Amino acid sequence: MSSEKKPLEKVCLICAKGSLEDVYASLVMANGAVMEGIETKVFFTFFGLDGITKKAMNHLHTATTGNPAMRMPGGIPFPTMLGGLPGIESAVSSMMRKQMEALDMPPVDEFLEMITAGGGEIYACKLAVDMFKLKKEDLSDEVSDIITIGEFYEMCDGDRTQIIFT
Amino acid sequence: MAVKTIAGVQVNLTEEGYLEDMNQWSEEIAKEIAKEIGIELTPKHFEVLNYLREKTIAKENLTIRGVGKSGIVDIKELYVLFPKGPLKFSSKIAGIPKPTSCI
Fold first, then answer.
1. Do A34 and A75 contact (CB within 8 A), yes or no?
2. Of the residues A42, B29, B97, B98, which has the fewest C-beta atoms closer than 10 A?
3. Is the distance from CB of B44 to CB of B69 less than 8 angstroms?
4. CB-CB neighbors (< 8 A) of B75 in chain A
5. Are the beta carbons of A36 and B88 separated by less than 8 Å?
């Protein structure tokens, strides 16, 4: 045995952006932490709220303009002009969701259920909820509460806690 | 690699305690490994373990989502059976390699 390991005990994630990849990055990290037995809390704020809003969460888009990493099938760079045409972003996003499903990545609503099934907790930011004029019933049933950032920080106590902002 | 005697049988373990060869597995070995983790195995546990072993033999990728859709347990029940390690601990007890899935 080498030196004593000090494993992570708590992971607190903040998801502030609403694109497909930003929300999934948060969800994969949250679910991964729960699976490792790490206490997990996720705070959705600003456009990230789309990830927990019933109407939007299963139809998230990835940006087809302003995204230099975007490629066509076969790896050819995706022309920015093409990305701006009507319907392209929607089509590309739906294709991406299909590819993710093939890797057993669940749709957002199911992913949230997986996280809470293991004891992870999901929160919505009060300021952002007020700003977008949302109500508790507009949000996924997996959301525990609408709270302030101060209340979220209070939950992030402990020596072996990490806050991750995506 | 380490050689260890579990339930009276000599088995080869990886550094993290997973069985090197899933054919060395038996229900007795499973019970011993589970005890070390702090889990008392029930018939429901064995249903999950056998499912994981079958999928491993079939070379299918294991995810908790897959187990949740197996019809044996849902994901919440899986966490109850194998607290803090639904895939990690269940794989270790099932005698299969450490899971490589992120989901």
1. no
2. B98
3. no
4. 113-114, 117-118
5. yes
In a domain, A156, yes or no: yes
Q: Long-range pairs for B54-63 at CB < 8 Å and ≥24 separation? A: B56/B22, B56/B94, B56/B96, B56/B97, B57/B22, B61/A104, B61/B101, B62/B87, B62/B91, B62/B96, B62/B99, B62/B101, B63/A104, B63/B87, B63/B101, B63/B103
CATH of residue A31:
3.40.1260.10
B-chain residues near A103 (CB < 8 A): 103
Q: What is the pLDDT of residues B37-83, one digit of tens each?
A: 999 999 999 999 999 999 999 999 899 999 999 999 999 999 999 99
Chain A contact for B39, CB < 8 A? no
ipTM summary value:
0.92
Q: Is residue A81 part of a domain?
A: no
Give me the domain span that covers residue A157: 10-63+106-165
